């Protein structure tokens, strides 16, 4: 153990630190921009945001080739002599696909907690963020705040909160506190059900209720969803959660609830004017009402055309 380590253990400043000025301390913390090899940059641990090789990525590659990188990556030094990504995973991927070897980076000293908070905040304004990405990112952000000494208690209830760290996060990301708690609950869904939420097949509030079911109950529900080709309504998931808390949510119960007709599955008239709906024969399915009316109008137009031709003779 060297003198510096001994001093730290005794609660004393290292000898060099005693003569370090405020300016030099600030300089050590100040970010710098360097061209760093892509191979020296590792991804942020458990990075919650997906990097997609889609049309937007293609456009980013073209922009980089034509104009260079407009915004450098943000990285932090890590113990193995390399760097850890804080912000810029998409840009790094674009450089890789473009066949480039180095990338401009802002290098900044920061703790894991500081890096986590920065990483989440730098991505919260992206145009498209999946619910699963929000779920993981918000939880990481609040866990980091908790490690910094700010207490959080957001998983015991989707609506109740005891502390105020959620208020800070809500203000930062532009979400309501209730929605933040709801998104965090999505971390308790099985991957298959979470994918349904990402695909828009299951809405947020029903998904939150489902997150309180056991893993076996969630898998039974997934089977029922596949069999009925429909996801449960909010009201149905509330009943399932209640039955689960009572220990009475069996496979048969889930199937029985899922077989019920939901209000949003009932066919709605295609015309606001009730007079139109009333004259359409009951034998015509709702989805065919427009075709029926269109044919009726075409037939009536032909009738009027014949009348005009007879009048002009």
Characterization of the model:
This protein has 313 residues and is of the alpha/beta class. Helix 4 (55-67) crosses helix 5, helix 7 (131-147) packs across helix 9 and helix 11 (204-210) packs parallel to helix 13 (234-245). A five-stranded mixed β-sheet has the order 1-5-3-4-2. The chain folds into two domains: 27-110, Conserved hypothetical protein from pyrococcus furiosus pfu- 392566-001, ParB domain; 119-262, Arc Repressor Mutant, subunit A. It has helices at residues 3-9, 15-18, 22-29, 55-67, 89-97, 112-123, 131-147, 165-173, 177-185, 191-198, 204-210, 215-228, 234-245, 251-258, 274-279, 289-312; strands at 32-37, 41-42, 73-77, 83-87, 102-107. Helix content is 53%, strand content 8%. Strand 3 and strand 4 (83-87) form a beta hairpin.
């Amino acid at each position: 153990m060297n003198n510096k380590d001994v001093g730290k253990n005794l609660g004393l400043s290292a000898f060099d630190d005693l003569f370090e000025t405020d300016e030099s301390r600030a300089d050590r913390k100040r970010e710098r921009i360097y061209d760093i090899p892509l191979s020296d940059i590792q991804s942020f641990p458990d990075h919650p945001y997906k990097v997609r090789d889609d049309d937007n990525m293609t456009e980013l590659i073209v922009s980089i080739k034509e104009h260079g990188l407009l915004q450098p990556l943000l990285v932090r030094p890590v113990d193995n002599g390399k760097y850890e990504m804080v912000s810029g995973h998409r840009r790094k991927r674009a450089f890789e696909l473009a066949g480039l070897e180095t990338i401009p980076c802002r290098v900044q000293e920061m703790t894991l907690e500081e890096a986590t908070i920065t990483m989440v905040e730098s991505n919260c304004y992206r145009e498209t963020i999946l619910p699963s990405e929000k779920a993981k990112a918000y939880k990481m952000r609040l866990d980091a705040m908790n490690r910094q000494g700010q207490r959080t208690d957001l998983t015991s209830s989707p609506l109740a909160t005891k502390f105020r760290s959620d208020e800070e996060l809500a203000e930062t990301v532009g979400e309501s506190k209730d929605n933040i708690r709801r998104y965090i609950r999505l971390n308790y869904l099985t991957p298959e059900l979470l994918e349904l939420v990402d695909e828009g097949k299951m809405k947020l509030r029903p998904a939150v209720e489902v997150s309180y079911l056991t893993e076996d109950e969630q898998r039974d529900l997934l089977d029922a969803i596949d069999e009925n080709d429909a996801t449960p309504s909010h009201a149905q998931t509330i009943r399932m959660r209640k039955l689960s808390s009572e220990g009475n949510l069996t496979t048969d119960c889930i199937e029985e609830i899922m077989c019920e007709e939901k209000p949003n599955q009932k066919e709605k008239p295609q015309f606001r004017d009730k007079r139109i709906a009333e004259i359409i024969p009951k034998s015509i399915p709702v989805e065919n009402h427009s075709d029926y009316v269109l044919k009726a109008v075409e037939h009536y137009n032909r009738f009027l055309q014949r009348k005009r031709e007879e009048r002009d003779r």
